[in-house]
């Protein structure tokens, strides 16, 4: 059964380990991604996302374990134009135009897209006439996206693809990704923007300390974290009093705004309302709440929800 799933997988990682000195960057990662899946790889800084992606692309060798893309060694899959990648490391010559860069990439593959088509899909047709070195960070990212797309790959691997893009740039990028993904192509992307994972991915893989700690849909990941969140406005909020309320597992106070993580929100709410609380809101766990609880991290900047919660990390 496992073998069948593996032979048909777009990505198959088995028992991957990779250390740098004392640091276990990747510590036993097993992952199967089926063709057509849109997978977000999440985790705090240093969780091992980039190291995992570098191994799966054949850019670095694991100490143990094996990576396969469409049943092939990663480098063979890349040479056949089956996989396009956009990584954080590596750059292009600043003197070349964006168009020249994409042309050079196209020449390396058996069945490339037309260069103009790749530039159009990446939303960078006009700027591609300019020197790469003169482009803004967001425009460079789009040239890199066109370079990843030009081999017309079945799998895209993207490490923080929208970093440095403005709001419009991000929206255009994800629209282009939707166009790419129609027709059953596969995308694996790492991001610190949880809203991007929530909006685009049908599966979320959460990493911490080189290991996968949760894997499922956004709804499934959120359901892993029990309880609800109560938000309210309260004068003279006392964190110690709030933490001691029945049903409350963690509390944070920002000025007069309080946020309570609750195992039993009904009991917590009755206790909270002994005081004149206003603007009370009870909500299910968000992806950010789950991220915090499952990784023990205070959450990335700019992520969905715009708030962080103080809570105990939960080992899984
Ligand atoms: N070439 C290297 N030499 C030494 N240590 C490394 C190297 N590459 C990664 N590491 C270490 O391995 C761990 C995992 O790093 P990695 O870049 O894979 O994490 P990440 O989840 O991608 O983090 P970020 O979100 O910050 O990009 C970190 O502790 C990092 O410092």
Automatic annotation (TrEMBL):
Cited CDD domains: ABC_DR_subfamily_A
Subcellular location per the Swiss-Prot or TrEMBL entry: Cell membrane
Topology within the bilayer: Peripheral membrane protein
Entry superkingdom: Bacteria
Main location: membrane
Residue stretches making up the ABC transporter domain: 11-234
Keyword annotations: Antibiotic resistance, ATP-binding, Nucleotide-binding, Transport
One GO CC annotation: plasma membrane
Example GO molecular function: ATP hydrolysis activity
UniProt-listed GO biological process terms: response to antibiotic
Pfam (any one): ABC_tran
PANTHER family tied to this protein: ABC TRANSPORTER ATP-BINDING PROTEIN
Protein name: ABC-2 type transport system ATP-binding protein
Source taxonomy: Bacteria, Bacillati, Actinomycetota, Actinomycetes, Streptosporangiales
């Amino acid at each position: 059964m496992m073998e069948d799933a593996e032979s048909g997988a777009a990505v198959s990682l088995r028992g991957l380990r990779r250390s740098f000195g004392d640091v276990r960057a990747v510590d036993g990662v097993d992952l199967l991604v089926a063709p057509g899946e849109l997978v977000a790889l999440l985790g705090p800084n240093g969780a091992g996302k980039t190291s995992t992606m570098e191994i799966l692309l054949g850019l670095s060798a694991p100490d143990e374990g094996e990576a396969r893309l469409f049943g092939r060694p990663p480098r063979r899959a890349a040479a056949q134009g089956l996989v396009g990648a956009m990584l954080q490391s590596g750059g292009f010559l600043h003197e070349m135009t964006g168009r020249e860069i994409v042309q050079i990439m196209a020449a390396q593959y058996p069945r490339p897209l037309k260069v103009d088509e790749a530039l159009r899909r990446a939303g960078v047709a006009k700027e591609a006439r300019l020197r790469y070195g003169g482009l803004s960070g967001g425009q460079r990212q789009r040239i890199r996206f066109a370079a990843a797309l030009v081999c017309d790959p079945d799998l895209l691997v993207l490490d923080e693809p929208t970093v440095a893009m403005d709001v419009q740039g991000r929206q255009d990028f994800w629209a282009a990704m939707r166009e790419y993904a129609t027709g059953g192509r596969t995308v694996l992307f790492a991001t610190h923007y949880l809203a991007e994972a929530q909006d685009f991915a049908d599966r979320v893989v959460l990493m911490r300390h080189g290991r996968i700690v949760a894997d499922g849909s956004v709804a499934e990941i959120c359901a892993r974290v029990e309880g609800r969140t109560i938000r309210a406005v309260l004068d003279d909020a006392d964190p110690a009093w709030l933490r001691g309320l029945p049903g409350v597992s963690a509390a944070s106070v920002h000025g007069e705004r309080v946020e309570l993580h609750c195992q039993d929100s009904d009991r917590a709410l009755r206790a909270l309302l002994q005081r004149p609380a206003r603007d009370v809101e009870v909500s299910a766990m968000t992806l950010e709440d789950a991220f915090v609880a499952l990784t023990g991290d205070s959450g990335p900047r700019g992520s969905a929800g715009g708030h962080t919660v103080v809570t105990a990390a939960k080992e899984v």
